[in-house]
Amino acid sequence: KQVWLKRHLRADFLSMSLMRAVATGRQRAARLPLVAGSRSSAFVPSTPEEFEAAGYEVSKKNGAPKILSPWNKWFPHEPVPFSPRLGPYTEKVEKDRVYYWCSCGESVSQPYCDNVGCKDTKFKPMVYIPRENETVQFCGSKHSPSRPIFNYTCYLVWADVNTMPAAVIGFGSCFVFGAVLTWFMHP
Fold it and tell me: In angstroms, rounded to a whole number, what is the distance separating the alpha carbons of residues 111 and 91?
């Protein structure tokens, strides 16, 4: 009984010392001076300054970057909206109420238009009238062909901007799928 107790206490001591080391490392990292242009992640821009440093045009109204979609890369004559979020906006909507979805991406009250962002642009707010009370996902990147409804185009734009994390996710999912499929199909 005493041997088990000693092992148990030793394991607790080791886990506590590991937790202290992690906490100490986080505290020390938090005290490091921030360098201009440094990011929280090496590959993923997340603030307007980081997008601007990466070469993107940034909106002066709300800080959203102007990101080309694959469509805009092939057809550069079409206007490019700002992309305030590379994912959907999930909103509760009421039946027969008129909503104006911001198509330019410069509105401060995303995903809805505030009639300030779209001024002096080629974009106009899109009218959306829901058929029932429901929760709807609106496109955040403003590149969806099914505007204003989200159809996963935002994730394609995210993958185009964040190529390294997208490649890691793609490789990891293919590896796991291949391993599972091999396990199922092996005789």
Answer: 9
Mean per-residue pLDDT of the chain: 78
Q: What is the pLDDT of residues 12-56, one digit of tens each?
A: 544 444 445 444 444 444 444 444 333 445 556 778 888 888 888
Long-range Cβ contacts of 163-167 (<8 Å, 24+ apart): 163/43, 164/42, 164/43, 165/43, 165/44
Exposure string (b/e) for 23-49, b if CB count within 10 Å is 16 or more? Answer: eeeeeeeeeeeeeeeeeeeeeebeebe
- Please state, in angstroms and rounded to a whole number, the distance separating the CA atoms of residues 164 and 154: 17
The answer to whether the pTM exceeds 0.85 is: no
Alpha helices in 40-162 (DSSP H): 48-53, 70-74, 153-161
Measured between alpha carbons, how far is residue 54 from residues 38, 113, 133 in Å? 11, 27, 41
User: Contact, 125 vs 139, CB < 8 A?
Assistant: no
